[in-house]
Amino acid sequence: MHLILTIRESNLRKLKELLKKAKTKSRYKQGWEEIGGKRNFYRSSWEVKYARHLQNLKSYKEIKDWLHEPQTFWFDGIRRGVVSYLPDFKVFRNDGTHYWVEVKGFMDAKSATKIKRFKKYFPNETLIVIDNIWFNLNKNVKAVDI
Fold first, then answer.
1. Can you tell me the distance from the alpha carbon of 140 to that of 146, in angstroms, rounded to the nearest whole number?
2. Between residues 96 and 12, which one has the greater pLDDT?
3. Which residues pair with 85 in a beta bridge?
4. Which tens digit of pLDDT belongs to each residue from 31-55?
5. Which of 54, 95, 127, 144 could lock 66 by a disulfide, CB 3.0 to 4.6 Å apart?
6. Is 29 helix (H, G, I), strand (E, B) or coil?
7. Which domains are present in the chain?
8. What is the CA radius of gyration of the chain?
């Protein structure tokens, strides 16, 4: 019985070490990128890909312009939990209107709360959430940095 317990403890230690390494290694790329003459810090490779997509839309005059994380929205009166929200992109249409884009690989509870509060506190703003479905549909499209 003692031998079995020792083996299990040994395996548990190895498992804990593997989990610790897995937490420190990021599955996505963070870093500075220059796209369309704009240098920004992107939090994921999906943000980079979507920024390149927006730049392509701009080059084909389908949109007027785009900005990465230009504005933080504060939820007045909220004392705890999610008190602000920073959308990934602001996109300017050719007609002068705009909308916001959130690129989401995984929708956790905190992200869902941010989006729900954004819609409640800023009902006149439009938010589009881009998820894995969009990336799967557009995976063969090559975005070129212009």
1. 18
2. 96
3. 73
4. 999 999 999 999 999 999 999 999 9
5. 54
6. coil
7. 31-137 (3.40.1350.10)
8. 21
| Per-residue pLDDT at 79 | 87
Least confident of 1-10, 12-21, 70-79, 105-114: 1-10
Report yes or no on whether pTM surpasses 0.90.
no
> Which one-letter amino acid corresponds to residue 5?
L
127/125 Cα distance (integer angstroms):
7
Q: Which two tokens stand for residue 136?
A: 């799967």
Task: Indicate the helix (H) or strand (E) that contains 55.
Answer: helix 45-59
Are 108 and 116 in contact by the 8 Å Cβ rule? The answer is no
Q: Are 100 and 87 in contact (CB under 8 A)?
A: yes
Q: Tokens in use for 138?
A: 């557009």
d(C-alpha 19, C-alpha 103), whole Å:
27
List, as one string, the DSSP characters of 59-126: HTTSSSEEEES--PEE-TT--SS--EE--SEEEE-TTS-EEEEEE-SS--HHHHHHHHHHHHH-TTS-
Q: Looking at the predicted structure, is the pLDDT value of residue 30 above 80?
A: yes
Joined together, the tokens standing for residue 124 give: 């006149």
